[in-house]
Structures are given as C-alpha cells and as structure tokens.
Amino acid sequence: MNRLKGKVALVTGAARGQGRSHAVHLADEGADIIALDICADIESNEYPLATPADLDETADLVEKAGQRVVTAAVDVRDRAALMSALEDAVAQLGGLHVVVANAGICPQGNHIPFRGFIDAFDVDFVGVVNTIHVSLDHLGSGGSIIATGSIAGLIDQKDLATGGGPQGPGGAGYGMAKKMIRDYTKALALTLAPHSIRVNAVHPTNVNTDMLHNQPMYKVFRPDLPEPSREDAELVFPVLQAMPTPWVEPEDISHAVVYLASDEARFVTGQQLFVDAGAALKIGV
C-alpha cells in the first residue's frame, strides 16, 4: 500500500475495462487520478464503447479508495482537447507523475470498410502518442510512462487482414498500432532516460473485458459459425495462450502497471512486458 502516495496518474480509456482497473489499483496505492475517456461510440467499431455513466462509476471507485479524481470526456485523437483537459486536471491536482496511455478500440470483421483501419490506428497509436506528448511538459525526474500494447503486435501484418481474413481492416489497424508501440516506447525511453523519465509498454493477451466479449470478436475466433455465442468463442479462446486459460483479468495487467508506475521500477525503462499467459512464447517470440 501507498507505493504511489503523493503522485498523480493520468489514465486514458478509464471508464471501464483495463483503464478502470488501472485507475482503481493506482488509487489503492495512493495516487490521485486523472481519468479520461471518449464516452461515446465510434462508427467503425461495432461494439458499444463506454458511457459517461461508466466514467462516473470509475470516479466513484477512486474516491472510495480515498483519492482525488478529475474526469473528462475526451477523444485521444484530439490533441488540443487532450492538452486542455490535462492542463485543467493538473492545475486541480497539483502535478503529474504517471501516464498510462491505455485507450483503445478493436474493430473486427472483413465487412468493415477501410475506415476501420484509420480509426483503430488513430485511437490505438496516434492516441497513445498524443496522450504521452501532451504530458511531457508536466513530467519531471522520476516520471513514469506506460503504454498498453498487445500480443497482436507480434502477429505478421499480412495475417491480420489480407486474403479476406476475419479481422479485416480494423484488425490490421489495431495490429499495426500495437507493433509501432513497441518501437516507439523503446525510442522514447532512450530519449527521456537522461531526464530520468521512464517509458515502458505492457502487452496483454486476451483480457476479460468488453473488447473481448462482443459479437464481432466472437466471429474472429469462430469464423466457422454464422452467429457464435460467448460459449462458442470460449471454447477456442485458450488456443492463444500457452497456459490453460481463455484470458487474463484486468487486474493482472494492473499489477504490472502499478509496479512500473512505482519507485520499485525506478531503473526499469524501455521494457516490453508481456502479461500474456505465455502467448508470446507460443507465437514464437
């Protein structure tokens, strides 16, 4: 407890899923939270995204942990809006020490037009870059930046979309974004190391959130069925992992985020941490 006492942490995609879990776990360790989320749907992404009520619930959970929280509905693709929201929040909370660039979408299906590639890439990579870059003027020595990647960044790009595969343009954009996060975080880690600001990425496998549990994703895992159910998909979810589990839980990722945010990881930078039940090993990395 109190590994992050006195720190302020920014979390994007904070209204539900991994982002909410990260916000709450960081708060449990003493951090005040800036919780941002788009709180609206994106047309090419066919499963519903978080709502304002979801973001309010995250704020309630942070306050129950005894910490201050500032929330805003912001699209990470809009750098100017991000900058404005962050400046307001930093003024209220008195600083910024941790950045968790977590917001993401995963449009799936070969029926989705090329807009799915644009939206997935813009949220999942450009949004990460926007979040981090507007934060840099507020971070000082000891600051920690953590980006959410994915084991999808390990899959050959041609296998994500070409040939009419089930992932389609959105899957291709998602995979490209996650590939670029790996190189981007390494390069930024080298750039910021002389300033004692650390940059790391966490790469999950399937996580038990709404991004996994939706009809378009079920069809990716069960293309043999016209309308697969959750139960149908759960039969094959374990195929990705070396360990016998269909997914990891959001808190499994949050434990890694808290460690990387804390002073326990004060000399850990440029790392690509796979919390994936051995999925990367199975892919061959």
From TrEMBL:
The keyword Ribosomal protein does not apply. One of its GO terms (molecular function) is oxidoreductase activity, acting on the CH-OH group of donors, NAD or NADP as acceptor. Pfam families: adh_short_C2. Keywords: NAD, Oxidoreductase. The keyword NAD applies. It comes from the Bacteria. Signal peptide: none annotated. Belongs to the short-chain dehydrogenases/reductases (SDR) family. PANTHER family: 3-OXOACYL-[ACYL-CARRIER-PROTEIN] REDUCTASE (PTHR42760:SF133), SHORT-CHAIN DEHYDROGENASES/REDUCTASES FAMILY MEMBER (PTHR42760). This is 3-ketoacyl-ACP reductase. It comes from Mycolicibacterium duvalii.
